[in-house]
Each structure stands twice: as structure tokens, then as C-alpha cells.
Amino acid sequence: MNTFLRLLVFAPIFFLVGCSSLERKAAVPTQEMGQAQIAGLSGVRYMVASQSSIDQMAKDIQAAQLSRNNAHLNAPANYLSLSGGGDDGAYGAGLLIGWSEHGDRPNFNLVTGISTGALIAPFAFMGKEYDPVLRHVYTQIGPKDIFIERGFISGILGDGLSDTTPLYQLISKFVDEGFLKKVAYEYNVNGRWLLIGTTNLDAGVPVVWNMGKIASIGTPESSELFRKIMLASASIPGAFSPMMFDFEVAGKSFQEMHVDGGAVTQVFLYPSALSERAKELNLKLQKVRNAYIIRNARLDPEWRETQRGTLSIVQRAISSLIQTQGVGDLYRIYHTTQLDGVSFNLAFIGSDFKFPHKTEFDTDYMKALFDYGYKQGLAGKEWQHYPPGYKQGFDEGKPKK
Predict the structure, then answer these.
(1) Residue 71 has pLDDT above 80, yes or no
(2) Which of 27, 84, 183, 337 has CB atoms 3.0–4.6 Å from 215's, for a disulfide?
(3) E strand or H helix at 144
């Protein structure tokens, strides 16, 4: 996150050199965004601000229900939402593994992820079999495993200060063809959903990708898309290069530029409008539904004396804005779950965690934070049932059995 803040501070410099930006295909025109599809991979994403996308998501859920019997309706449905947070994702990884070892981590019907949460989500979706992957990624890697720094001048004349080829290689190492077949099976046979969010920077809107549907296509192109979406969701604008996705509209070629999903939201569960559409389609949902939200960040305002200088003031203000945005996202999710009768369960990094954070993806820091989350999960995490500051001791929204 510190890298992101520094980039925002230096935004005027980037503006001055904007005339030297790299070439790209034309962006999808706003009036044609609803018709744009990736060749051979149509219907794999939802623009959640669009009613047509909400309708398509509801129809996809309906199609999945047609292939299943009603037995699953009697079992609780469990949803997992993983937020952004950079190397603070070590908290969520540790919590999940400790939860597994505690013995009551459920098999999630829905898993969503943004930014670092997008890197955790596929492995959390597949269950404790992949806990060793999460442990490795969040305790054994360092900056060199994530990015290669470009020179400052070449960075600002390009599309990012760093090259994320190492991160793509790390993703590809674990998200291989065997892994993707397992994701496809869970989607097609068990009706489980994996969603990852990115930001369409051209349009300035959030995009949610149906990763199970993508894995089900089973082509080299779909496999590459799966990995590129994970990378795009974790691509901090300016710090890392964006991902360019080729789209077609009426035989014409365009491109969309996608970056970190955290550019528009820190965490998401499902669109609130989806519930109303589900009712209209008479979709049958499980009566007992539990949502678990892991916010890979602290929620209490961090006191820090601010230097009396322009850059320091701007950096501090942006940091506060991002922290407040994350809290606002939690209120939005809470409101949706309460309307829909879904229990709300929240975990986040507490103010009791104190360990020096020297640099982004500091291995020592990540190990300490991983252990902090792991101990919580192993001890049987006591989840918060309300957003921060909502009402102390408010017990509505506890998980149901």
C-alpha cells in the first residue's frame, strides 16, 4: 500500500510525461461495453454496475441449479470474501490455515477475492489441500519473487515502475492445468463459485470474473486468462504494469486496461441487486447462509504524527481515504447480508499486532503476521458480527448451523 501512496503523490510527474505513453489498441467504447467479449471466452465476466450483467449472473446461477438436486438446499451455504491489503494478505492466509487445523473450516460455496485476496482466493476455494501453497507464498517469498524494479525514468515512461513477471511465474507454478481442472469440477459438478474482481481502468468500473466458468473452458487461452486475471487484480496502478485484455465487438478489435480491484473497492461479496433478480427468477437458495469476510488490514485509525510538508500531508490523507473506503465496503456488505438474511462474520488485523514493517513484501513482517492470523484460526476465531463502530456487542448476524 505504501508504494501505491507514493505513486499518487508523484501523479503530477506522471501527468507531465503522459505524452510518451505506450501504444495500445483503442479502448472499448462505452456504448459497446455490454457487447464486448474475449474471442472464444464469452460470458466469463460481469460488470456489476450493469443490470444486464446482474441478469446474466442470476441466469448462470439458475443454470447451475438445473443440474443439481434439492439436497444441497438443506445444508448451510458458506461464503468467503478476501480483501486486498498487499503483504497484509499474510494475515488471511494464516487465519485460513489455522482455521483448517482447528477442524471446522467449511467448504465454501462462494469465494471472492480482490488484490492480495485474489491471490489467496483460488487456493482457499480448493480447501485445506492447498494450505501448504498459501503458507509458502505468504511466509517464504520476498520482493524479488513479486517484481523487478525498473529504473525511475524507464518506469514513468512505461506503464509501471516494476515488472511483475516474477509474480506471474509464481502464479503459473501453482495454477497449473491440474489445478484448473479441479476448479472446473467444483464449478460444474458441485455448483461452487470463485469470483475475482479487477478494475476496468478505461471505464473506471469494477469487473467480476467467473473463474470457474473460465477454468471450465479448458483451452490454453482460458488457462492464460485465469492467471492474467489473478495478476491484474493484484496490479497496483503505477507500481505494476496493468494487464491488457483483447476484446471484440462486431468483428472489431479493442483492448481493456485492467488493474488492481482495490482501485474501486477493497472487498466484495456479491452485488446487492442480485438478490432481487434471484427472487424474480424464483431461484431457490439455501435457507441458512453465512458470510465470512477477511479484511487484510487494520480497521482502527493509525495515529501517526504528520510532517508539515506537502508530500507528507498528501500521503497521510490518501492513506486515511483508503482505510475509510475499506470500512465503507464492510458497511455495504453488512447491509446486503442483513437484508438477505445472511449471517455476517468479520475478521481483521487487530491493534494488538505490532511488528515493524520496513518495506513492502518484507518476509519477516509477513511471517509475523501469518503467525498472528494462524494462532487466531487455530484457537477458534471469535468473529465480529458487525462492521467497526456499528454497535459494540451487537450479536445479530452470528453464523448459523
Answers:
(1) no
(2) 183
(3) none
